[in-house]
């Protein structure tokens, strides 16, 4: 990774966006422990910049500034929520952010040191969770691959949102919304979130269309999950055929699930075998649009999430943007 003579200083900048509150504060502690090793192994070839977030959405601003400055890489240090925010910093006003001077040369790459509660993207790649030596090895090797990015558009929200893992709607999105309130309890937060979401849940008929085709009414939807990668909810293999390098999204819908279905079939969600069951459909798409059925009395309360972050409510459009970024593998 020796810098060549034409490389500017900014093009050697590695900006680490650290959420000190991630994983109930463990991210901040682990980050401090790994700094000496990181400096000694990466510091001779790169300028290491540490940026601690001060609250929600701050990581978006830090990442956007770093990309504008032409940094070599922006590395999210934390969970999927921090990665989600850093990813969103690569985009502005519906487009990829360009470096200020439109400098030729290497584009800013996206990296991840997974230190969150769920760390579901790390599971997709089979990385050891919270293994800081392995994470530093990856950065030192610097192997990159163009990765697809998922996009969610909510008409009421002027800002598009981007995701790497899984976006979803209805029960799973509501469960994620509640789970985020119980992160102090570690992975148990997902179980409590699901129980709380179920209390007020009702399966709903929803209108959907894929790839700009005909609208159809899908009956009694419990949850629809749109995967760029496989995992959500701290290890559920919800979209088991999803691949962030194949230019498509895997859509999995659970229909007419009752509370006891989750108890009896929970293990299939972790194994990824639920897609072979009745009441589950799976589909490979480029775009999916979903809206509520007209004339329903209960409107406006179908939750939408991406990468575990609550985005809002239906209607929503999900699409794939192939090969958007260099991702450090
Ligand atoms: N300094 C901060 N103080 C409080 N919250 C923060 C801060 N910085 C970021 N956040 C918020 O913390 C949330 C969760 O962060 P993160 O994803 O890193 O950890 P996690 O939730 O423990 O892990 P995972 O998402 O993998 O389950 C994000 O939604 C982010 O907006």
What would your notes on this structure say?
By secondary structure, the chain is an alpha+beta fold. The protein is globular, with a radius of gyration of 20 Å. The chain has helices spanning 26-42, 58-68, 80-89, 120-124, 132-141, 171-179, 188-199, 259-271; strands at 13-18, 47-52, 73-78, 91-92, 95-96, 109-114, 144-153, 161-163, 166-170, 204-210, 216-227, 231-232, 236-237, 249-255, 280-285, 287-292, 303-306, 309-313, 316-328. Helix 1 packs parallel to helix 5 (132-141), helix 2 (58-68) crosses helix 3 and helix 6 packs across helix 7. The longest helix has 17 residues, at 26-42. It has two domains: 10-142, 3-Layer(aba) Sandwich (Rossmann fold), CATH 3.40.50; 153-322, Tumour Suppressor Smad4. The chain has eight helices and 19 strands. The strands form three sheets. The chain has a 15-stranded mixed β-sheet that branches. Strands 4-5 form a two-stranded antiparallel ribbon. A two-stranded antiparallel ribbon has the order 12-13. Residues 1-6 have low confidence and may be disordered. The structure holds adenosine-5'-triphosphate. Adenosine-5'-triphosphate is lined by residues 19-23, 53-56, 58, 78-82, 85, 116-119, 183, 308-309.
Write a concise synopsis of the structure shown:
The chain is built from 8 helices and 19 strands. It is α+β, with helices and mostly antiparallel strands and 329 residues long.
Name of the CATH first level of the largest domain: Mainly Beta
- Count of all domains: 2
Number of strands: 19
Indicate the radius of gyration in whole angstroms: 20 Å
Domain DAGKc: 9-156
Keywords: ATP-binding, Kinase, Nucleotide-binding, Transferase
Protein name: DAGKc domain-containing protein
GO molecular function: ATP binding; kinase activity
């Amino acid at each position: 990774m020796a810098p060549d003579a034409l490389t500017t200083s900014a093009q050697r900048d590695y900006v680490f966006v650290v959420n000190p509150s991630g994983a109930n504060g463990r991210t901040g502690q682990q980050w401090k422990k790994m700094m000496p090793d990181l400096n000694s192994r990466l510091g001779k070839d790169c300028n290491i910049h540490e940026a601690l977030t001060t609250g929600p959405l701050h990581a978006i601003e830090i990442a956007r500034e770093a990309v504008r400055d032409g940094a070599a890489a922006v590395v999210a240090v934390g969970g999927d929520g921090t990665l989600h925010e850093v990813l969103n910093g690569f985009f502005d006003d519906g487009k990829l952010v360009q470096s200020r001077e439109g400098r030729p040369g290497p584009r800013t790459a996206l990296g991840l040191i997974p230190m969150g509660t769920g760390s579901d993207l790390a599971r997709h790649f089979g990385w050891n969770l919270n293994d800081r030596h392995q994470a530093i090895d990856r950065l030192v090797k610097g192997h990159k691959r163009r990765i697809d990015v998922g996009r969610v558009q909510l008409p009421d929200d002027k800002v598009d949102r981007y995701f790497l893992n899984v976006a979803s709607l209805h029960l799973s999105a509501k469960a994620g919304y509640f789970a985020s309130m119980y992160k102090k309890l570690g992975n148990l937060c997902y179980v409590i979130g699901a129980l709380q979401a179920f209390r007020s849940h009702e399966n709903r008929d929803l209108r959907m269309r894929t790839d700009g085709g005909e609208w159809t009414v899908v009956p009694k939807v419990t949850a629809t999950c749109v995967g760029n990668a496989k995992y959500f909810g701290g290890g559920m293999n919800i979209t088991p055929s999803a691949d962030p390098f194949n230019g498509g999204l895997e859509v999995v819908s659970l229909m007419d699930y009752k509370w006891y279905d989750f108890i009896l079939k929970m293990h299939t969600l972790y194994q990824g075998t639920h897609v072979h069951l009745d009441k589950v459909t799976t589909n490979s798409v480029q775009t999916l649009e979903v809206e509520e059925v007209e004339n329903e009395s209960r409107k406006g309360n179908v939750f939408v999430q991406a990468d575990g972050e609550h985005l809002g409510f239906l209607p929503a459009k999900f699409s794939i943007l192939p090969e958007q970024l260099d991702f450090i593998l």
